[in-house]
Design goal:
about 30% helix, four-stranded mixed beta sheet, five-stranded antiparallel beta sheet, alpha+beta, 15 helices, paralog of FGE (formylglycine-generating enzyme)
Amino acid sequence: MKVRKKHFFTRKIFKGKSFYLLLGLFLGIAIVVALYQTSVYFSTDESCMSCHVHPHVEDSWKLSKHFNNASGTKVHCVDCHLPPRNHTWSHYTAKAKLGMRDVWGYLTKDSTGFEWDKLSEIESAVKYIPNKSCKECHHNLFPEGVTDEAVIAHLYYEENEEKLNLQCISCHLDAGHYNPNYKHSKMAGAPVMSSVTIDTALYFKTATPVTEFKNFTEQVPGSLVTFEMIAVPGGSFKMGSPDKEAFHKEEEGPVREVTLSPFFMSEVEVTWDMYWAFYVKTMSEGRTPPANVFANNSRPDVDAISGPTPPFGFPDQGWGGGNRPAITMTHYAAETFCQWLSQVTGKKYRLPTEAEWEYAARGGTETPYFFEGNPKTFSNEGFWRKFFDAGTDVISSYVIYGNDSKNRTQEPDAVKANPFGLKNMLGNVMEYCADKYDPQAYQKTGGKVTDPLVREGTEWVVRGGNYASDAADVRCAARDFSRHDAWLKTDPQQPKSIWWYSDIRGIGFRIVCEKE
């Protein structure tokens, strides 16, 4: 009797457990199905666009090759913006992470303050376009009818994808969202600067004569281009930054006394109007440069100057030309511009030395900037910046940098001049100098030096920071250098261009004219 009761009790427990196991299994399956269906719903284009308030996201998608193409294939939001579905873990974790971020932003942020143009640039796009998603659909990089230039580019991509971390969207940024200002093809000639027919009889015949050391307006013969040159008096100044200066770096010291001869410096960075005038007069195709052009100060023959070959797309990035600073050229191209300008004006134009650049940037001041302010107040760096925004009231009057640039260059009139009358010495674009870069340059010359120029090194000094820089990197003493190989990372040409960089936008230059 006792044994029978025991078996009955055991069967009762077993039946109870079975019920709960079956119930748990059913609920588990139901939850999985519900989550899957929820995921399916929230992966539709309509669901994505219900939260994404970009005013042109749907229209630009429908104008792109991913919606309107010869094959009739339509690519959806999640196909590009999430890892492929067969990468299950990375797909769903990315979806959860981005989904929570987007919902939070939708509920708590004011979209009227979003800088849509900035968010559509390559720096932002690479965060949201996994390269493996591109490769999931594009199995054949050499389809029938592809151009020879595309074959070369795609071969280069296949050989260097992992080594250089190449991204498909580096060359196809408008594949998913059409951008009329983006073009990836070789430019046939200089951009049309005006729809108005210009009477070439109005072109300047001669350059501006300079008979005394004062500001003058240079006029470029054979064009309508003029620009202002500022007379910078010679003198002595303390070059570099003291150890106690906020964000001081070792390469900025020790502070040394530098004496400079007087010189003229362009009021603004070389503009597109100036650079296109040079391009039109000197553009070349297939020219072979000196073998050691990037190894020393080799310069082209001034009697037969051959200028840039056509770039891919428009190097102004669609931001506009005119008085905006010319960008993306190599140091070699900047030097060639100076040689050409010297030839057509009869003066001696060149790039500034690093010492001349800092002297001019300071404008007679000895503070971190040529205006009042503590770099820590303006910088985004530091723990407290997670809770409090950096100050911008003062610095934004003088500098185009990361906090006010909208991630692009701006025209010179957007800022005030420094005490010497020079604009955009800090920010907007990094500016080439005539010096080779040496991190120990100041230590090697002693406490006092006159008209210094560093001739040994691999890369070139660049100064001033650019439109994407933090306030810490646009101090007068802040130093930087070119990165030639990295700035040509996605250039598939063999040999690579000696005129145009493919992977840096915030680089330009300013010119100096020597006092006779």
